[in-house]
Amino acid sequence: MTTSPAPSDDQRPSSRRRPWTRAQRRAAAGHFVRGLAYGTGLAITSLVSYWIQQMM
Fold it and tell me: Is the dihedral of CA 29, 31, 32, 33 positive or negative?
């Protein structure tokens, strides 16, 4: 009796980890964007504060 060849990667069932890793990547990307926004806001606020101090 012969066995059939292994299915190609496209035909294999997705593992349980894939949805979890996709969710983790999405969450990490969200945290990265949020961090960039907070950092940008802090930098702008610091520069404006410094500029105001120099004007006085």
Answer: positive
